[in-house]
């Protein structure tokens, strides 16, 4: 009951503050509910951290960022693109409680990737000094799909390992922290590769890229988990 009240309050606050559209707020509530039913408040902690960091990074010095690339209100598609994989893992944890430890790890890995991607893109355009196409390694225009900077990559890496650290503090599973951090960084790199190739050719859109980067992160986390256990 308390969680339902918190979700309703979250939806109202994000709509009134202009952070999310009404349908995006509903999508966020569905995502949060699915994560919660399978992983409880532990999973919600990681989801909440991603949301707070992502919201701050998006709003940070917003007027200096390129217009048209950072809409004020997030859509439902964007919410599911970043949190959809975590929601699926949460639902699986509900139906397969014996695998909760692994699935909670995958929830954290997917959100670490989403965090790394958001911080690197939103902050990289502000603090990056030199920008390169991740495929050709040639200088390119900041803000374009698949363009990265050292500063943005490091900020994204910090975000990924921050979420990993919170996972470690929450669960006390020290040997899994590096898996989440590495998976998050790898997912962010996958995002840039997809952006420089498929997205630039208009084969897939940005929401698909964001979803696939979190999927790549959980795939790597799954492999690393089984190799170390």
Layout of helices and strands:
Layout: H1 2-16, H2 22-59, H3 76-95, H4 100-127, E1 131-133, E2 147-149, H5 150-171, H6 174-199, H7 206-227
Antiparallel strand pairs: 1-2
Helix pairs in contact: 1-2, 2-3, 2-4, 2-5, 3-4, 3-7, 4-5, 4-6, 4-7, 5-6, 6-7
Question: Care to describe what's here?
Answer:
The protein has 229 residues and is mostly helical. The protein has one domain. 75% of the residues lie in helices and 3% in strands. The chain has helices spanning 2-16, 22-59, 76-95, 100-127, 150-171, 174-199, 206-227, and strands spanning 131-133, 147-149. It has a two-stranded antiparallel sheet. The radius of gyration is 17 Å and the shape is globular. The N and C termini lie far apart (37 Å). The model has no long low-confidence stretch (mean pLDDT 92).
Short summary:
The chain is mainly α and 229 residues long.
Count of individual beta strands? 2
Q: Assign an overall shape.
A: globular
Mean pLDDT figure: 92
Q: Give start-end ranges of low-pLDDT stretches.
A: none
Work out the count of structural domains: 1
Query: Approximately how much helix is present in the residues?
Result: over 70%
User: Radius of gyration in whole Å, from Cα?
Assistant: 17 Å
Sheet with the most strands, sense and barrel status: 2 strands, antiparallel
Distance between the termini: 37 Å
Structural class: mainly alpha
| SSE pattern | HHHHEEHHH
Oligomer: single chain
Number of helices, where a helix is a run of at least 4 consecutive DSSP H or I residues: 7
